[in-house]
Design brief:
By secondary structure, the protein is α/β, with parallel strands linked by helices. It is built from 18 helices and 15 strands.
């Protein structure tokens, strides 16, 4: 179990002798083409933005937290300590969180099922036991989140609660049992308060479906929260949930974390058992999907990962090892080079520069800019590897009946469809030409080999999260490729933490992805804490 996949040695490639002049010319034509396409994408984006801004009108943010509830902005581990030390009761925390949920949900539309008022009874029992000294030190140690409320996305099973996958056909369907990760968080003392909104069967970049509608961004409700753990992003950032459990197959934890200004960790594939996440059995031999924590504070991520991680993987993950961020080696990539993606915005590039500068100052070795084989084809890589997934998204969308993409498109265009446009896109994607398997496997192998060799045991890759901060609702229907900045790390099965880094000129969250070799999740999380300390981390979407 504890044997790590050995590193593969990069083959040295034979240099081709080409005419220098023709290669210069080719280089120049390529750059020109890249430039022209970039310009076209930027202009298209600007036009979409102008139209959507006009359509949505005035900017609005989520309601502020009133002063007697300001404790809701604290971290999960701080709140757990306050409960343990009898400074706050679990009942106070749960009641305040439920009230906050009701207050923000009118504006954000993030909840599918909940808030679960019966959690108040559970909280009362915990408070009683604490007040009567009935909880031993051992029990406190085994339950680090005792009495702390949390949420999870609708696609992850919570016993007795709605499990709709965002489908009208599953309007009343509930789960029979808890997903493995939910059971583990409950065992650690967590109290589930709601299940939250997702795109249909998790398969789109925006959180919208025809059952619940669209979830709005707390920093600007005209904008998307991303997907698929979008309800989580909205509730956590607006202090209506203490922490959340997401899943990530192509950016689904990191995308909403970025757009909503919080932390999200996509663990190494296999680190957490996925039983109960979108019908997974947890025994699938090969998959890109992982469950992981989402929170306002970096320091919550490691304790959450510890309680959810498969104990059999601890010998690889070594989550209790201390990490010295000054001793790690830092690498960064400025641009994926993918022709279909817009260039990364100046503000995001500046953020990267600041992050790199920070590590220049504190780390023993200077950060190095690199390029990675395959990032320029990340969309194709992910598209191919999605076809190798055990889940059949077409059957999921059809609630067990296979859908014909063309018929669904026609139904959509004639307003007869139960599905959103995002879902129709993923159906249509099935009938577009397939990627060439051998070619893609070879690019993936090379990319994996290169990254493994560069990062080794102690390397950290800093990568843009996306080319732009949170777009308007619907804008991503005109930009289907840029999320490859996230999905490339699903293809590679490596851990990646999304770190918030302040707000841009429009008041929207900026951020960066912190990536390490497989099983070095602890390195990502230590760097996330360092960046939080240096740059301030989560900035609330209201004045605190
Ligand atoms: C969809 O599937 C679920 C579970 O398989 C079932 O309970 C439900 O009735 C189905 N919905 C429709 C409209 O058939
Ligand atoms: C869901 O339940 C309600 C009331 O119990 C019922 O009227 C409705 O038909 C059900 N919807 C589906 C899709 O099963
Ligand atoms: C690695 C990196 O810099 N990623 C980008 C993610 O987002 C921020 C802000 O939007 C950018 O500054 C980063 O460059």
């Amino acid at each position: 179990m504890c044997v790590e996949k050995s590193k593969v040695v990069i083959r040295t490639e034979k240099k081709k002798h080409t005419n220098k002049l023709s290669s210069l010319f080719r280089d120049f034509s390529w750059k020109l083409l890249y430039y022209i396409i970039s310009m076209v994408l930027i202009i298209k984006d600007k036009i979409t933005d102008i139209i959507l801004e006009f359509y949505f009108g005035e900017k609005k943010t989520c309601p502020p937290l009133n002063s007697e509830n300001s404790f809701l902005a604290k971290s999960a581990i701080e709140l757990a300590a306050l409960i343990r030390n009898r400074k706050v009761t679990s009942t106070q925390l749960v009641e305040a969180t439920i009230n906050r949920m009701k207050e923000v949900n009118d504006v954000l539309n993030a909840i599918v099922d909940g808030p679960f008022e019966d959690a108040i009874e559970e909280a009362k029992k915990i408070d009683e036991r604490i007040a009567n000294n009935q909880i031993s030190e051992d029990e406190f140690a085994a339950k680090p989140f005792l009495g702390v409320p949390f949420t999870t996305k609708d696609s992850t099973s919570v016993s007795g609660r709605l499990h709709t996958l965002g489908l009208l056909a599953r309007k009343n369907v509930t789960s029979k049992e808890d997903a493995e990760c939910i059971a583990l968080v409950k065992n650690a003392g967590g109290l589930i308060l709601a299940t939250t909104n997702i795109p249909e069967v998790n398969k789109w970049q925006e959180t919208r479906n025809n059952l619940i509608g669209a979830t709005n961004n707390p920093y600007d409700v005209r904008r998307t929260v991303g997907g698929s753990s979008g309800g989580e992003g909205a509730l956590i950032s607006s202090c209506a949930s203490t922490f959340g459990i997401g899943t990530d197959i192509g950016g689904s934890i990191r995308m909403p974390a970025f757009y909503c200004g919080i932390f999200g960790h996509k663990p190494t594939v296999g680190a957490i058992n996925t039983r109960g996440c979108t019908f997974r059995t947890g025994k699938e031999p090969s998959t890109m999907v992982v469950a992981g924590p989402m929170s306002r504070y970096a320091k919550d991520l490691l304790p959450l990962l510890k309680i959810m991680a498969d104990p059999k993987k601890e010998c690889l993950l070594k989550l209790n090892d201390k990490v010295d961020v000054r001793k790690l080696k830092y690498y960064y990539i400025r641009e994926s080079g993918e022709l279909k993606c817009k260039p990364v915005s100046n503000e995001l590039q500046l953020t990267m520069t600041n992050v790199v500068k920070h590590f220049e100052n504190i780390a023993d070795t200077k950060p190095t800019e690199i390029k990675l084989h395959g990032t320029d084809r990340a969309t194709k890589l992910w598209r191919f590897w999605m076809t190798q997934e055990p889940s059949d998204f077409n059957l999921l969308l059809g609630n067990g009946t296979r859908l014909n993409p063309m018929i669904e498109l026609i139904k959509k265009l004639t307003f007869q469809s139960d599905l959103t446009m995002g879902a129709i896109y993923s159906l249509i994607d099935e009938i577009l030409p397939k990627e060439k398997a051998d070619k893609i496997k070879e690019i993936t192998r090379k990319c994996d080999e290169e990254l493994t060799n560069i990062l080794g045991d102690d390397g950290i890759l800093l990568y843009h999260n996306m080319t732009r901060t949170a777009p308007f609702h619907y804008a991503l229907l005109f930009n289907v490729c840029d999320f490859s900045y996230w999905s490339i790390f699903n293809v590679l099965h490596v851990p990646a933490t999304q770190v918030p880094l302040g707000l841009d000129s429009k008041g929207l969250p900026l951020g960066v992805q912190v990536v390490a070799s497989r099983n070095r999740d602890r390195h990502c999380l230590a760097v996330a804490e360092e960046l939080e300390l240096a740059f301030g981390g989560w900035k609330p979407p209201f004045k605190l």
